[in-house]
Amino acid sequence: MYTGKDPRADLFAATTKPPATGLIAEDQLALFYGTPPQAEGVGWKSWYHRGNNFVLAYSEAAPGAVFARDGQPDEYVVYLPDAAHGAVIEAGDERVAVPGYRIAFVPPGDSRVTLPEGGVLVRLFTTRSTDLAEAASNARAYDAARTHIPPFEAWPAPKHGFRVRHYSLDVPAEPGRFGRIFRCTTFMVNIFEPQKGPRDTTRMSPHHHDDFEQCSLALKGKFVHHLRWPWTVDMADWRDDRHVEVGSPSSLVIPPPVIHTTRAMDAADNDLVDIFCPPRMDFSLKPGWVLNAEDYPLPKD
Question: Is the pTM of this model over 0.85?
Fold first, then answer.
């Protein structure tokens, strides 16, 4: 369903296999603007939104705010979208100053993220962090199992063991490469270059995923998420098309096998991040697409 010069065009072969029945789920939407946070403390407030395998924590903080995790069961993501707002990450014996406009991966165990200048902090956890999954605004949305999504399995440990790793987002565009993709043992994050102005409606990219969710995090601008549920032989699966208009910050979890594409709408910057848990194999197999691939090996199979 990718066309033209879209780098994803050769990822999927055409198929006539009909979608399975009885597996249709609803999208999950969270508007972090205009809604109360799920948690707050001295100098900070946080909104939590979950998918089948993950929890997204969006936080706004005053200078000096601290976000601690004790006994964290697995590796998690710290995303710092603003160049002027960095963080200090403490994990084990490490204390690492991470500039703004970076993505960092934090080892399991005890850790602390401090924002000396405050700002926006995005963290990504798997649902093994049960306290955060229960705190999510849509905590009950996954009480019915998504049987068409395989059980979560972490990818192999990084080379030379777990430690705080961080990577600059100041990466020039390259022909044939799609976005700015980073992965760890638990997540893949694709950070798009902010789009100036509305998206060209003659260059949309409708597509679907058979067995994994996509979370689209809007950090600046306005968007319309276009969603189409496939028809199966069971009309109970059928849904009307949806065109979900959102501002920023907001998060939309798109279930498989919903056909989807997103249109940026703001006249200024439109800033979107795509999140997958666990990492995507198809993107990982594209040479040069995952910018930190040397640090995180592929599964052996």
Answer: yes
